[in-house]
Amino acid sequence: MIIKRFDQYFIVLLLLVAMFSSYKLFFDNFQTNLLKNDILIATITEHLNTVKLKRFGNMAWIDASLNDRLTYNDQIYTHEGSSTQLSLVDNSVVDVSEKTLFKIGKSDKNTEFFLEQGIIHTRFNAQSGSNIKLHLNKQTIELNSKNAVVSIIQNKEQTKISVLEGTAQINEKGVVTTIDYNQFVRLNKTSNILEVGKDKISLISPVHNQTEYISHPRDILFSYQPLHDQNPNFVIEIASDPEFKNIYKSLKTIKHSINIQFADEGIYYWRVKTDNTNDYPIGQFKLIKIKPPQIFAPEVNEEFVFEKVTKNINNKIQIMFENTQKNAEVELFLPDNKKQLISSTDSILDLPVESMGEYSFRIRNLLIDGQKSPWSSLHKFKVTQAFLPFAPDTIIPNHDHEFIFYNKEKMIIDLKWISPEAIPTSYNLIIQNLKDQVEVENTVLTQNFFRKKINSPGKYSWKVKMIDKWLRVGPYSNAANFTVTLMEIKNTLPQDGVVLKLARPDQKVNFEWEKKSVEDLSVFEVSKEQDFNNIIHEEKTNKNKINVVFKEIGTYYWRIKNQEKTSNTSHYAEPIRVIIEPIAPPEKPILPKFQELKIQKKQTSWIESLFNILIPSAYANDYYTRIKWPAKENIKSYKLEIYQDETAANLLIAKTVATPYFDWDNPPMGTFYWRMAYIDFWDRTSEFSDLSTIQIDIDSNLKISNEISLLSPRHLDEDVFSKNKKVQFAWEKQENITEYELLFSDDLEFTQIFLTLKTKTNSINLEHAQLKKGQFFWKITGLGPYNTNTSSKRRSFRLLAPSPVVVTNLKTSKTTTPSFKTLGSYLIAGYAPSKDHYEIKSTSLTSNIDDSTIMSFFSKGVFKFNNKFKLNYSLFFKKGKVYGDQNWQIFDLLPSLDYSLHSLWVGVGVSLNQTGVYPYTPGNSKPTYVGKTYLSPLITLKYPMVLTENLKLILESKKGFGGTSLFLFDSSLLWNYTKQSLLSLGLNYSKKSFDYETQEIGFSELKVLLGLGFVF
Fold this sequence. Notes:
Layout: H1 2-36, E1 42-48, E2 51-54, E3 62-63, E4 69-70, E5 74-78, E6 83-88, E7 93-96, E8 100-107, E9 110-123, E10 130-136, E11 139-145, E12 149-154, E13 159-165, E14 168-172, E15 175-179, E16 183-187, E17 194-198, E18 201-205, E19 210-214, E20 218-226, E21 234-239, E22 247-253, E23 257-262, E24 266-273, E25 283-289, E26 295-297, E27 302-306, E28 315-321, E29 328-333, E30 339-344, E31 348-353, E32 357-365, E33 379-385, E34 393-396, E35 401-405, E36 412-418, E37 424-433, E38 438-445, E39 449-453, E40 458-468, E41 473-476, E42 480-486, E43 491-493, E44 498-502, E45 508-513, E46 521-527, E47 535-541, E48 545-549, E49 554-564, E50 569-572, E51 576-582, E52 594-601, H2 606-614, E53 623-628, E54 635-643, E55 651-657, E56 661-665, E57 670-680, E58 692-698, E59 710-712, E60 717-718, H3 720-723, E61 726-731, E62 739-745, E63 753-759, E64 763-767, E65 774-783, E66 789-791, E67 795-799, E68 826-831, E69 834-841, E70 846-853, E71 856-864, E72 869-882, E73 886-901, E74 904-917, E75 930-946, E76 951-960, E77 965-978, ...
Parallel strand pairs: 9-10, 19-25, 27-33, 35-42, 44-51, 52-58, 60-67
Antiparallel strand pairs: 1-4, 1-6, 2-3, 2-5, 5-8, 6-7, 7-9, 8-9, 9-12, 10-11, 11-14, 12-13, 13-16, 14-15, 16-17, 18-20, 20-23, 21-22, 21-24, 24-25, 26-28, 28-31, 29-30, 29-32, 32-33, 34-36, 36-39, 37-38, 37-40, 40-41, 40-42, 43-45, 45-48, 46-47, 46-49, 49-50, 49-51, 52-53, 53-56, 54-55, ...
């Protein structure tokens, strides 16, 4: 540990030493650079398009602007099509061409140029001269001159310094080389040796870096002079880049000058090529398109109003415009269709106006070379003479308006007026008390409204007049009257600003106020706005109280207007603010940690008993347990959750109930966990309570504890079936037993049960059949709620004659039910007369047809696969005549695959329907039959009930969807009068509806079903 701590201290010490060393090493240089950064080297005097600037020490490039100061190590970069001009502190000028990366610095008294790429041109100061240190291709060269214009080119191909005017000296490592006009120095990139050369051609016009202005396509003169006798063939190349990759024009000529037309502005480079030289001096010039000058004032269609407009009065309109050339022409069009041409060297001009009317003018700039910019668009303005001031119009308040106040300190009124077709400078306002004719206000205003505090109630009059900017006074407005009324009626309940906490949205709020007389009528008003512009509740009453229900929470205002019967006057009371809010949200419920609950039997009403006839009570909710908790005031409902585990991971039940208890139907026994939350009438839900434990067990009154007593036949009864064709097996019935099983076996221990019969009653009748003699045993088992059970003692009987069941090979116990419960597949066909109703609806008429159909037949069938699945189908066919002679027919085939849910069968299938329709056509009073076929999905419900051993009632419902909407209900009684024969009697109701073109068609029918069938 000591060694590790020492290492940490040693590392910190090394860091401190490194920081101190860096400080001593770099501080002087850093401080020097900071001092240099304050020294001005150059200023940006011109730039074309976007030029980028990066300051020393900064990482980001910014847009350069005119008059930006350049200091130590600042960098300039020009994009394609952009350029800039720098003015050095010694008045030398540097032109930076496009696509140039250039850095400027300062060393002693010399200016330093770092040219990474591109072209710069330097014009040295002719008076004092300049000394510039050039950094080119990792080599430093000193360049000095007094009157030279030097071009410096740095690119991938070459590094070249050319003298375009005057003479310059180059000092390279102490070797001074003088370069005259049209001479150049090229730096050899491999050996860094200066190579001096002389241009064979002198470029004369355009002058280097010359700027020409164009307003339309114009000729530019290109002239040059060969310095020696040369081949008279010249090629003039003009490009938009200094590398001459994008040649704009290339012309061959033998002349020394040529005019070339240009229409586009930009920066251009030009050179003259010959056959006997590869050194081409490069010239540069700019073409700037002259644009119409911009007009800044006056605004288009501006109107100028003067007190008087005549020739004797010097009225002037000042115009402001762009005058970059300091020479412009203004063409003024007068109202009398005459015009004047005015010259101006300034950007502001005063135009004289001597008459009223509409004027217009346009402007163009004049260039030094005689060129003219295009005219600007016509700029119009209007000159009018001011009318005498008008009488203002009073607008607020209306004449004879009444201001009602309830507090003397708040009697403040607002007055407002307008001045039509005039230019006001000020207003004179007078307010007078009509009672004593005393002026309560006489003031001069600059705005067209005034707020005044009235000291006493009464009737007042006010008027106002206008004063224009020439101090001409207009007439007063018509006097307008207003009344200030101070009310003294008081509201009593609730007071102003009271916050009412409501337990529920439909809770009534009580309002009370004072009345002078019982006979006075009170008008009660409620609004969400203090000025009562929108009244949401209004009610008249002879009482001094009222109850109101507020649909929403928020801030409301209420007031009373008492209509006094004696004085026939009405007075409003002061508006009272009342805030409606809900009560605090419900808190977290607190439940007991543990509850023990008992499962009890439900007490059924007669309606429930009737329903249990259709659904056996074995599958109904016969048992329940009740979870209770304390009722909570102002709670609308309770949100309940029951979990299987104490971690609340397995949710069993989630319910919302309106009562402080929950009846859990047929709950399982065991330990469960539950919690509850409150929901108030504002639909706010509290936090859930902590989990509470409940233990659920069956009530002792529902448990089966007694043994079943057998009644008949007697024990050891012999030849019981020889005495009667039917023998009744009977036993005592117990209250809590829901189902009994009668078991038959031929051994004492019931190891092999060959017959099991189930029933809900306490007896079963059996018929005899031929069987061998022998001794048999029988007993009863009873099934109670929640799998509680009991049984009887066994009894024995001997068969000396036929036995109730023929058993050839005794097998393990299997449940056997009466004949209809084991009924397998069957087919039924028969006759089905019907009563029909047919309806057609369209946008213009409705048609109804009622008829009885004799030619109607049906067929039904069941194909049973096992105890869970069977194929069921219904087929209906009918035909007849309508409208006397039109045949029609209806065919329905409804197959489905059914699945057993205890006693209820649920199935899915299809509905194939062919139905006749009778659409109406315009001009035809009798519709024509059209057959339509539909195929749609089908859902079926089927509930069979065994009435006796040979009699069965089947209730069946079918619902179709899609092209045709189908509903069918069928009730059939089946009688198995022989072993393989069936007789069917039933009623069938069906209703179909579908759309045909623009018509809605419906068909309903009620059938009587009479049929015969067979079992297979």
